[in-house]
Design goal:
The protein is of the alpha/beta class. The chain has two domains: 2-66, no CATH class; 89-183, no CATH class. Helices cover 59% and strands 10% of the residues. Helix 4 packs across helix 6 (109-130).
Length: 185
Protein backbone atom coordinates (compact mmCIF):
# COMPACT_ATOMS: atom_id res chain seq x y z
CA UNK A 1 0.00 0.00 0.00
CA UNK A 2 1.36 3.38 -0.98
CA UNK A 3 1.40 5.80 1.90
CA UNK A 4 1.44 9.57 1.94
CA UNK A 5 2.03 11.53 5.13
CA UNK A 6 -0.15 14.44 4.06
CA UNK A 7 -2.84 15.30 1.54
CA UNK A 8 -0.38 17.74 -0.06
CA UNK A 9 2.14 14.91 -0.60
CA UNK A 10 -0.59 12.82 -2.20
CA UNK A 11 -1.81 15.59 -4.53
CA UNK A 12 1.71 16.28 -5.76
CA UNK A 13 2.30 12.57 -6.43
CA UNK A 14 -1.13 12.07 -8.05
CA UNK A 15 -0.56 15.01 -10.39
CA UNK A 16 2.53 13.24 -11.69
CA UNK A 17 0.95 9.76 -11.68
CA UNK A 18 -2.79 9.59 -12.54
CA UNK A 19 -2.88 5.92 -11.53
CA UNK A 20 -2.83 7.18 -7.93
CA UNK A 21 -6.30 8.73 -8.29
CA UNK A 22 -8.33 7.35 -5.41
CA UNK A 23 -11.78 7.29 -3.87
CA UNK A 24 -13.08 6.55 -0.36
CA UNK A 25 -13.84 2.93 0.50
CA UNK A 26 -17.58 3.65 0.64
CA UNK A 27 -17.57 5.14 -2.86
CA UNK A 28 -15.77 2.01 -4.10
CA UNK A 29 -18.37 -0.13 -2.32
CA UNK A 30 -21.18 1.81 -3.97
CA UNK A 31 -19.54 1.52 -7.40
CA UNK A 32 -19.14 -2.24 -7.02
CA UNK A 33 -22.54 -2.76 -5.37
CA UNK A 34 -20.99 -4.40 -2.30
CA UNK A 35 -20.56 -3.51 1.34
CA UNK A 36 -17.57 -1.74 2.82
CA UNK A 37 -16.41 -5.00 4.42
CA UNK A 38 -16.20 -6.54 0.93
CA UNK A 39 -13.91 -3.68 -0.09
CA UNK A 40 -11.72 -4.37 2.94
CA UNK A 41 -11.59 -8.06 1.98
CA UNK A 42 -10.68 -7.26 -1.63
CA UNK A 43 -7.88 -4.97 -0.46
CA UNK A 44 -6.54 -7.73 1.82
CA UNK A 45 -6.78 -10.22 -1.08
CA UNK A 46 -4.91 -7.84 -3.39
CA UNK A 47 -7.87 -7.40 -5.75
CA UNK A 48 -8.11 -3.69 -4.97
CA UNK A 49 -5.20 -1.29 -4.41
CA UNK A 50 -5.31 0.85 -1.29
CA UNK A 51 -3.57 4.17 -0.68
CA UNK A 52 -3.14 5.74 2.72
CA UNK A 53 -3.18 9.51 3.10
CA UNK A 54 -2.28 10.20 6.68
CA UNK A 55 -4.26 7.59 8.61
CA UNK A 56 -7.13 7.39 6.12
CA UNK A 57 -7.22 4.68 3.48
CA UNK A 58 -8.62 5.00 -0.02
CA UNK A 59 -8.89 2.71 -3.04
CA UNK A 60 -7.46 3.55 -6.44
CA UNK A 61 -9.96 4.37 -9.15
CA UNK A 62 -7.95 2.18 -11.53
CA UNK A 63 -8.38 -0.94 -9.38
CA UNK A 64 -12.13 -0.30 -8.95
CA UNK A 65 -12.45 0.21 -12.70
CA UNK A 66 -10.65 -3.11 -13.27
CA UNK A 67 -13.10 -4.87 -10.93
CA UNK A 68 -16.03 -3.37 -12.86
CA UNK A 69 -14.47 -4.67 -16.08
CA UNK A 70 -14.13 -8.15 -14.59
CA UNK A 71 -17.79 -7.99 -13.45
CA UNK A 72 -18.89 -7.00 -16.95
CA UNK A 73 -16.83 -9.83 -18.44
CA UNK A 74 -18.58 -12.32 -16.15
CA UNK A 75 -21.97 -10.96 -17.19
CA UNK A 76 -21.03 -11.26 -20.87
CA UNK A 77 -19.63 -14.79 -20.45
CA UNK A 78 -22.72 -16.09 -18.67
CA UNK A 79 -25.06 -14.33 -21.09
CA UNK A 80 -23.25 -15.96 -24.04
CA UNK A 81 -23.41 -19.36 -22.32
CA UNK A 82 -27.16 -19.08 -21.71
CA UNK A 83 -27.84 -17.83 -25.24
CA UNK A 84 -25.73 -20.60 -26.78
CA UNK A 85 -27.52 -23.24 -24.75
CA UNK A 86 -30.91 -21.73 -25.58
CA UNK A 87 -30.05 -21.88 -29.30
CA UNK A 88 -29.20 -25.57 -28.81
CA UNK A 89 -32.64 -26.13 -27.32
CA UNK A 90 -31.44 -26.53 -23.74
CA UNK A 91 -34.25 -25.52 -21.41
CA UNK A 92 -32.36 -25.35 -18.11
CA UNK A 93 -28.87 -25.49 -16.64
CA UNK A 94 -27.86 -26.03 -13.04
CA UNK A 95 -25.77 -23.48 -11.21
CA UNK A 96 -22.58 -25.58 -11.43
CA UNK A 97 -21.82 -25.10 -15.14
CA UNK A 98 -23.03 -21.51 -15.08
CA UNK A 99 -20.81 -20.56 -12.16
CA UNK A 100 -17.97 -22.69 -13.46
CA UNK A 101 -17.95 -20.74 -16.72
CA UNK A 102 -16.60 -17.75 -14.79
CA UNK A 103 -14.47 -19.63 -12.28
CA UNK A 104 -16.96 -19.50 -9.44
CA UNK A 105 -18.12 -22.34 -7.24
CA UNK A 106 -21.43 -23.23 -5.68
CA UNK A 107 -19.77 -24.23 -2.39
CA UNK A 108 -18.31 -20.73 -1.83
CA UNK A 109 -20.91 -18.47 -0.17
CA UNK A 110 -19.47 -15.26 -1.61
CA UNK A 111 -19.50 -16.77 -5.11
CA UNK A 112 -23.18 -17.64 -4.66
CA UNK A 113 -23.91 -14.06 -3.61
CA UNK A 114 -22.00 -12.65 -6.58
CA UNK A 115 -23.68 -14.99 -9.06
CA UNK A 116 -27.03 -13.76 -7.77
CA UNK A 117 -26.05 -10.19 -8.62
CA UNK A 118 -24.76 -11.27 -12.03
CA UNK A 119 -27.93 -13.20 -12.85
CA UNK A 120 -29.98 -10.23 -11.71
CA UNK A 121 -28.10 -7.93 -14.08
CA UNK A 122 -28.59 -10.39 -16.95
CA UNK A 123 -32.31 -10.68 -16.17
CA UNK A 124 -32.77 -6.92 -16.14
CA UNK A 125 -31.08 -6.58 -19.51
CA UNK A 126 -32.88 -9.49 -21.14
CA UNK A 127 -36.24 -8.30 -19.85
CA UNK A 128 -35.64 -4.78 -21.18
CA UNK A 129 -34.40 -6.11 -24.52
CA UNK A 130 -36.55 -9.20 -25.14
CA UNK A 131 -39.37 -9.20 -22.59
CA UNK A 132 -38.21 -12.36 -20.81
CA UNK A 133 -35.84 -13.28 -17.99
CA UNK A 134 -33.04 -15.24 -19.65
CA UNK A 135 -31.84 -16.49 -16.28
CA UNK A 136 -34.99 -18.57 -15.90
CA UNK A 137 -32.75 -21.19 -17.49
CA UNK A 138 -30.59 -21.36 -14.34
CA UNK A 139 -32.10 -23.79 -11.86
CA UNK A 140 -31.23 -25.36 -8.53
CA UNK A 141 -30.26 -29.01 -8.41
CA UNK A 142 -33.08 -31.23 -7.31
CA UNK A 143 -35.84 -28.69 -7.94
CA UNK A 144 -35.46 -27.86 -11.64
CA UNK A 145 -36.58 -24.38 -10.65
CA UNK A 146 -34.75 -21.07 -10.11
CA UNK A 147 -33.90 -19.71 -6.69
CA UNK A 148 -36.45 -17.64 -4.73
CA UNK A 149 -34.44 -14.52 -5.70
CA UNK A 150 -35.43 -15.13 -9.34
CA UNK A 151 -39.11 -14.87 -8.44
CA UNK A 152 -38.48 -11.75 -6.34
CA UNK A 153 -36.86 -10.12 -9.36
CA UNK A 154 -39.66 -11.32 -11.64
CA UNK A 155 -42.16 -9.69 -9.31
CA UNK A 156 -40.16 -6.45 -9.46
CA UNK A 157 -39.67 -6.39 -13.25
CA UNK A 158 -42.53 -8.21 -14.91
CA UNK A 159 -46.19 -7.30 -14.33
CA UNK A 160 -47.22 -10.67 -15.83
CA UNK A 161 -45.61 -12.43 -12.85
CA UNK A 162 -48.69 -11.59 -10.77
CA UNK A 163 -50.93 -13.18 -13.40
CA UNK A 164 -49.28 -16.61 -13.17
CA UNK A 165 -51.08 -19.02 -10.85
CA UNK A 166 -47.85 -20.43 -9.43
CA UNK A 167 -44.13 -19.77 -9.57
CA UNK A 168 -43.78 -22.95 -11.59
CA UNK A 169 -46.28 -21.63 -14.15
CA UNK A 170 -44.37 -18.36 -14.44
CA UNK A 171 -41.08 -20.23 -14.81
CA UNK A 172 -42.52 -22.45 -17.53
CA UNK A 173 -43.82 -19.37 -19.37
CA UNK A 174 -40.36 -17.81 -19.26
CA UNK A 175 -38.72 -20.99 -20.56
CA UNK A 176 -41.24 -21.11 -23.42
CA UNK A 177 -40.53 -17.47 -24.32
CA UNK A 178 -36.79 -18.13 -24.30
CA UNK A 179 -37.11 -21.24 -26.44
CA UNK A 180 -39.40 -19.48 -28.93
CA UNK A 181 -37.01 -16.54 -29.23
CA UNK A 182 -33.86 -18.63 -29.75
CA UNK A 183 -35.42 -21.43 -31.81
CA UNK A 184 -34.82 -19.68 -35.11
CA UNK A 185 -31.32 -18.40 -34.41
Amino acid sequence: MKQFATARDYVIAAAADPSLACIPFQVAADALDVGRSAIEARVRAGKLVAIAIGRTRYVTVQSVHQQIGEWNNEIETITRLLETEARRGTATLSYNPVMGAVGRRTDVPNDRKIIGHILGAISRTSFETHGFLLTAMVVRNGTSRPSPAFYDLADELDPSYQEAETNADYHDQQINLIQEYYAGS
